[in-house]
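INSTRUCTION: Work out how this chain folds

Fields: amino acid sequence; protein backbone structure tokens

Chain under study, with its fold:
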Amino acid sequence: SKPGRCQFRFISRSSGAIMNATKNETTKKIQSHRSVRRYKPDAIPSDVLEDIFNCGIRSSTSGNMQSWSVILTEDPENKNHLYKLHWQQEMILQAPIVLTFCSDMHKMRRWVQQGQSRQSFDDFLGFMTGAIDAIIAAQSMAVAAESHGLGICYMGSTLWEADKISKALKLPEHVVPVTSMVMGYPNEEPEKRDRMGLSAMVHREAYTTWTDTDIESLFEEKAKATWERFQSWDNFDHLVKKYGIRNSTDYYTCDGKYSKALHQRVSEMYIQLLETKKMFL
């Protein structure tokens, strides 16, 4: 069959939502996800937290090596340190715990060494194997947390300051942070954010060749929703003037968001970190 744009019966083009008749409690929970940025100070019961961690442990893992680790931070002083490293995001101080997920070949290499076997895994493939394991485990734990009535929010700033976070958490060689999340009981009920639908995300047999008109259509709702959200901010006028923002695409690549300068700095730093951790040979 000819590759092309994916079309599904009974699926809304704008939302990608499956008919209610085919949903179950798990898929309903996943499709109702919202990132939570305001939290109550209530502690997470230990049995709930253990259940969440066990869901991470049972996640899919390459070669059953479980080449990932997670650092649990709940001590106020340590959280305050992470708060500073994560660009002072208040949710870090509000939520009872911060979880930092790492690509971890340290354990595996130590085990191989003790078995007096030939070494491996100290390379980019080893890092990527662990990174994918870590992210899969993180998402399993996110779904588990939400099933317990908790909220979560991932933090992209983990990559932005990975070298400093690595030092703060005393990560040894062959262990590299890849993502973090805060977790706790929500103190807000945020609205669901816009998502592009299946027509944008799913391709049949091969990647779709998009025309300019296709791209404009795919991003039309996102552009509108992003701009409306941006306009609702108290500092909208200041940001528009400071960064010369004219539209949603300007917003995404301005110096206050995901600029090329930021990407260049973080890319160079992360490669250097991998070399330091002996994971880029």
